[in-house]
Amino acid sequence: MTPIELLQELLRIDTTNPPGNEEPAAELLRGFLADAGAETHVHKSGSGRANLLARLPGPTDVPALVLVSHSDVVAVEPDQWSRDPFGGEISDGCLWGRGALDMKSITVMHAAALAAVASGGEPTRELIMACFADEEAGGREGAEAVLRDAPAAIGFADHRPPPEALGEGGFGLSGIVDRPLMPIVVGEKSALWLELHAQGDPGHGALPPERQANINLARALTRVAGFGTPRVHPVMRKQFSILAEDASGTQGAVFKALASEGGSRVARLLKRPLRARGAIATLLSDTITPTKIEAGYKHNVVPGYASASLDCRLLPDTDVDALVARLQKTCRNYEVEVREHARHGGPVSARSPLFETLEGVSRDLLEAPVVVPSLTAGMTDLRYLRAAGASAYGWVPLVLDRESLATIHGHDERIKLDDFTRAVRAMTAVVRSACS
Ligand SMILES: [Zn+2]
Q1: How far is the CA of 108 from the centre of ligand 1 (A)?
Q2: Scanning 55, 56, 57, 312, which has the fewest C-beta atoms within 10 Å of its C-beta?
């Protein structure tokens, strides 16, 4: 089976999460990897979700290399698609389907790379592939379950250096600077999920009470929601210093200023233009975003209670406890109580030998990109591995434009076959080089 055929088959399995239904995908991959000579195992979480694990044994006194992906996908709105989202169809030079970018194509890159290494005899380190379930719903039945139940299966053991890991989060991007930008993601913003509970006096809409829950909630939200004060995290400082060498004119000057000692002050001054450029602004600020507001039930009744959910995405060095305390203090002024719902996060990985391999292969095999360390605003399973001590990098050897990027979790997700074939080669080069 060629990588393209394997990806077609994988895309035809509907792993929309919930419910996930990852088992057929895990079995398909297990067959491919066992044929290639790997030891394979499907690890079931407590509720029966299937996590595929494959390994090529190697010396255990050095860190294992773990290739991390997930087999579940997010839901589709089929009537918004111009092709069957689960048809595995090839047309216009692309392979179409939910998961074509996030991230079944990357799972196949990992599988093809492992197969290539297997054909070359015993690797110089243990090579593991983990295709987890449940990533799109937070990873409780996937990465979290495997790490808790079978840490050795993904390279964690006493008296052994923690593994290096490679996963999602770092697509190459075009249209930001002159050359394609190839980020190697070393850390993620953390997520803090809060609930706001507002109180007031209930009453008749014709006789509005003095204290109203809806108004209290609205006032609290307008005070706390939005972008926090911009600042330049050390990882982004390094990124800007590399970009400054590459860019000229105004753009070059801006990167240079952001990379300087006073970079955070510059980021504050440039708050508006940076925000207009989109994604970059999210990597320079904490963001606090209301995602759900619930209140009221009848047009002429004033409710005594209202609530909201906040999705806070915080730079890795933000003091989370201090932030919660500050939000509590502000909200108390409006009779709004802040309760914590969940916290996700992990440390930032330092530069390890794998980082250098990724840098080299990015330069050699892709269209002469600018390679930079980066953070990502999103959350991936790599946070679990970083928290357990792994050096983990988000790196995907595909260069996407804004239009393709929008198909991830959007409509008409697809991958160009030429890009995919080249990416399989680049992934194989990385894994081979890291295992020899
Ligand atoms: Zn993903």
Answers
A1: 14
A2: 57
Q: How far is the CA of 408 from the centre of ligand 1 (A)?
A: 9
CA angle at 100 for the pair 15 and 313, rounded to the nearest 5°: 80
Are the C-beta atoms of residues 188 and 378 closer than 8 Å to each other? yes
Topology (CATH) of 191-228+286-343: Alpha-Beta Plaits (3.30.70)
Residue 362 has φ and ψ, to the nearest 5°, of -55, -45
DSSP state string for 406-436: HTTTSSS-EEEHHHHHHHHHHHHHHHHHHT-
CA distance 168 to 170: 6
Per the structure block, which two tokens stand in for 14?
């509907």
The Å distance, Cα 103 to ligand 1 centre, comes to 5
Ligand 1 mean position, distance from CA 101 (Å): 8
Report the alpha-carbon distance of residue 182 to residue 359 in Å, rounded. Answer: 9
Q: Domain-by-domain residue ranges, the chain?
A: 3-175+375-434, 191-228+286-343, 234-282
- Check residue 357 and report its DSSP letter: H
Cis omega before residue 162 (within 30°)?
no
* Secondary structure letter of residue 180 according to DSSP: P
pLDDT per residue as tens digits for the range 141-180: 999 999 999 999 999 999 999 999 999 988 998 887 888 9
Query: In angstroms, what is the span from residue 409 Cα to ligand 1's centroid?
Result: 9
Identity of residue 389: G
* CA–CA dist 377, 189 (Å, integer): 5
Q: How far apart are CA 202 and CA 301, in angstroms?
A: 8
Residue 18: partners with Cβ closer than 8 Å, 6 or more residues away: 137
Q: Return the structure tokens found at 375.
A: 């953070």
The strand pair at 226-227 and 287-295 is best described as antiparallel
Residues 6+ apart with CB under 8 A from 217: 196, 198, 293, 295, 306, 307, 308, 334, 336
Supply the pLDDT for residue 420. Answer: 97
244-302, pLDDT tens digit by residue? 998 889 989 999 999 999 999 999 999 888 887 778 899 999 999 999 999 999 999 99
- Looking at CATH, the fold of the domain delimited by 3-175+375-434 is given as Aminopeptidase (3.40.630)
